[in-house]
Write a structure and sequence with these properties.
Blueprint lengths: L5 H12 L14 H13 L3 E4 L7 E4 L1 H6 L2 E2 L14 E2 L8 H9 L5 E2 H8 L3 H13 L4 E6 L2 E6 L4
Antiparallel strand pairs: 1-2, 3-4, 5-7, 6-7
Length: about 160
């Protein structure tokens, strides 16, 4: 798998949002020397290419491989400039997080005890309790009760 530097990701991302897919002008705050070095590395890896524009100097543009590596899909991969099509981000379902798993366990009718939460998430008990505090801070009404002599937690919807 190709690994990109942070600056290379920034350049490709900025180019993917432009109608013509051009890497220049550089995003604000990017050093021109560092940007040129990163652009050169993108050309060597075939993630950017030099294209001649009508009546002007050649400029650097993102390639289909560059779009693919940052997770951007486009309907028109060969011609980015003429059609005015902007690429659509890859809309994949959100990756389930442990926090979302924790919340779903708490929203069950019976709630969940810390042992169930640690087993499901792989977290230590103090991490589970910290996550419960985080849910409270985000506005979730986390309630504490006892079930068979053990502390049970339940959660409704966001207040």
């Amino acid at each position: 798998m190709t690994r990109l530097s942070d600056l290379q990701c920034i350049l490709l991302s900025a180019a993917s949002r432009r109608d013509d897919g051009c890497l220049y002008p550089l995003p604000a705050g990017v050093d021109p020397r560092g940007g040129a070095k990163a652009a050169g590395a993108l050309i060597r890896r075939h993630l950017a290419e030099e294209r001649a524009s009508a009546g002007s100097e050649p400029s650097l543009h993102i390639t289909a491989a560059g779009l693919k590596i940052i997770g951007v899909e486009t309907e028109v991969q060969a011609d980015r400039g003429g059609a005015g099509e902007s690429p659509q981000a890859d809309v994949s379902p959100a990756r389930p997080t442990k926090a979302a798993l924790l919340l779903s366990l708490l929203q069950r009718p019976g709630g969940a005890v810390v042992a169930e939460l640690t087993e499901a998430t792989g977290w230590l008990p103090h991490t589970v309790r910290a996550a419960l505090t985080g849910l409270r801070k985000k506005g979730h009404p986390v309630e504490r009760d006892t079930r068979e002599g053990r502390t049970c937690y339940r959660c409704g919807t966001v207040a």
